[in-house]
Amino acid sequence: MSGPAVGLWLFETREFRDILVDVVPWLESFCEPVETKVGSDPDFWVRDGSAIGLPALDPTGVGVFFLSQDEEIPAEDEDYSPFSRSPVQGLVLGAGCSGPANHQVLGHLALVLAERLDALIDFDGLLRRSRRRSFRDE
Fold it and tell me: Do 62 and 101 contact (CB within 8 A), yes or no?
């Protein structure tokens, strides 16, 4: 898989299977199919973008997404001091391929999952404010 990915930081420990019990039925309400093979992470294809704030989504150009555990959170070499508490668990939400549609869906999925799981999104780097540019500006 070579698409974009983001981390989700959880501040209360939950078994991954319990997270899936909560998340998979919700995914099945707008994704098709949702495939979870024994001992593996779920793969899913978003077919109805309205559930994540993308009512005009054309699923034709959108690939597979996945949700997995991040075994490296909390990381010993990270500074979590700006937060009132340190993350105790991490998840990885990723897309199987790149491209504008996949990046947009990933962003919306991350936001909705972060709200659903009471998590923070780890962008793995400094976010800075810049002038918004469209592709027409280039």
Answer: yes
Helix-strand-coil percent breakdown of the chain, rounded to 5?
30, 25, 45
Query: DSSP of 34-55, one letter per residue?
Result: EE--TTS--EEEE--GGGGT-T
User: What are the distances in angstroms from CA 4 to CA 7, 42, 93, 97, 118?
Assistant: 11, 17, 9, 7, 22
- Residue 118 φ then ψ, to 5°: 55, 50
**Predicted TM-score of the model (pTM):** 0.85
Q: How far is CA 131 from CA 3, 94, 100, 123, 134, in A?
A: 25, 27, 19, 19, 10
The first and second tokens of residue 42, run together, are 């779920």
Name the phi and psi angles at 131, rounded to 5. -65, 130
Q: Check residue 89 and give its pLDDT.
A: 95
Among 20-24, 79-83, 92-96, the minimum mean pLDDT is found in: 79-83
The H-assigned helical ranges of 1-138 are 16-28, 100-117
Q: What is the dihedral of CA 42, 14, 125, 131, to 10 degrees?
A: 80
In this predicted structure, what is the pLDDT of residue 13? 94
